User: Fold this.
Amino acid sequence: MDEFELIRRYFAHVGADRADVRLGVGDDAALLEVPAGMQLVASVDTIVAGRHFPPGSDARSVGHRALAVNLSDLAAMGATPAWAMLALTLPDADPDWLERFAGGLADLAKAHGVALVGGDTTAGALTVTVQIMGFVPRGTALRRSGACAGDLLAVTGTLGDSGAGLALATGSLRTADSAVAHELIERFEYPTPRVEFGLAARGIATAAMDLSDGLAGDLPKLASASGLHAHVDVERLPLSDALQAIASTEQARAWALSAGDDYELLLALPRQHHDSLRASARQLNLRLSVIGELRRGNGVSWTLQGSELAHPVEGYDHFRRASTQITD
Ligand code: ADP
Ligand code: MG
Assistant:
């Protein structure tokens, strides 16, 4: 199978059919129509074997995650996803692997109405880059800046599951409860980007971002972009039953703060809008938890039942700390 046959077979018709794709896979570049009155929202993210997922991961999960992490960025902007491009670097052209990879990508793309409109294919160590593009009505995108002192800090879903799931998948954590193990590993392998909730929060939240590097790593970015201090009551962090079934509350909170890969949304929310956004979340079968508030000042603070946390908390940083990397 040569490169062109590979592209034709696995990537020529992935995702939704969209009328705004005038020219998709097959020419030198794609031709795409941005609807009138809309702004193009674009983001790109790379996942690398041994760094972002264990080598030997199911290819279906790799395809899903490569798109999911990008959809999560659009969710955080309150954008409607439309188009994706895929730059794929592969050690070899294994048909079974490609079939599963393209399947994982295609299922999630279809679920969100996204068309794969182009990409690039090269040989080398397994690395998957997806660029996502979507729309917001002009001037309505959610940003990290824009929060006000007094706004509530809220998160969707539960935190820390993915961190525990990765530890289970790589064997550094064990449990005899296979249903719980399966649930947590799925949270790592098949994260759910909160696209519909991001749309519901547009025009209501004053600031938003997605959580990819752990709350402790990401919250300072929102606080600093908004020019405020962010305070978190650590006892309010939403923890799933599955996570609490395999870990002490202390360990579960440590994952929730630092593990990363949650792909939940973090939002700043005027107090008067809390009830209505919570109702939107409920309609989507999603938890929305208030975990703290924005205050005048800068930096972040963490308390547990009113007392400052004893240990400083840190998120994941690829260049500063490599302790959470999957392999050497
Ligand atoms: P060029 O040499 O002009 O860059 P390529 O051979 O790289 O062309 O790609 C041919 C066509 O296939 C282009 O339309 C490109 O966008 C698309 N393509 C290449 N690789 C992928 C991929 N992995 N997924 C989707 N489309 C791809
Ligand atoms: Mg090319």
Notes: The chain is about 35% helix and 25% strand. The pocket of magnesium ion (ligand 2) is lined by residues 120 (CB under 6 Å).
